[in-house]
UniProtKB/TrEMBL annotation:
Keyword Hydrolase: yes
UniProt keyword terms in alphabetical order: Hydrolase
Pfam family, one: Abhydrolase_6
Protein name as annotated: Alpha/beta fold hydrolase
Record Gene3D superfamilies: alpha/beta hydrolase
AB hydrolase-1 domain ranges (all copies): 20-269
Amino acid sequence: MLRVDGVPLHVLQEGTGPVVVLCGGLGMAWFDWEAVVALLAPDRTVVRFDRPGLGLSAPAPGPPTAAAEADRIAHVLDALGHPGPATVVGHSMAAFHAEAFARLHPHRCAGLVLADGSLADPARPLLPRAVRHAWAGGVAGAASAAGLPRVLGPAGRRLISRAGALGPHPAHPWERPTYRTSRVVRACALENAAHPYQAAEVAALRPERALPPVPVTVLAAYGGGETPRELRWLERQRALAAELGGRFVVAAPAGHLLMADAPDTVARAVREL
């Protein structure tokens, strides 16, 4: 446990070699990266941490922003004694954090891997940020008062995991005790509420803060279907790679949780930067 920006964070560091930071998507925990860490740790220093309120980390005093999460990555590296550049892997919503890190801390970034990352929408969210966050916090508080996290939290987590992955992945031993807490449920609600605002933040950063001249890989999960939705997602991810001047790679067969379905593809993307 490290105190970063005044918040006790659960941080893991494994392996030796160039530094890689693994950032999970909305509501995810450190154990979602286990298969990728096993592949990278022999020749990389792999850092992963639970964002405030998630996993085993303490809650944050305020709602998340892309800029604050980018700063948090830098401050975790500082706390571990890694002042030099690091490769950052951002999955799903954490792709916002990884890209913001590269733009706001260009000298700290050695490369980016955006793993089935969320897409930044330049459209402004309809509700003020404070209103949406207050509503999400209120819903989470009411659910916690009713005891719902203890009863439904782990089951909800398993349903989301099964929907996001193609293969059967057994529950991690820490999954149940972690997701039955009101702390994690509240953090998930606040992250979900913050999603459109973080997308707008990153969209606004792009014309103002150039990416550093580092390699970028965009990984797109593909399950093998031919539905318009799946094909459209691939094209949007390809367009993101082109916009960022990066390489486009399809991870197949894989669901959105491609670190579980295709950990070798994620590890290879890191090594090939």
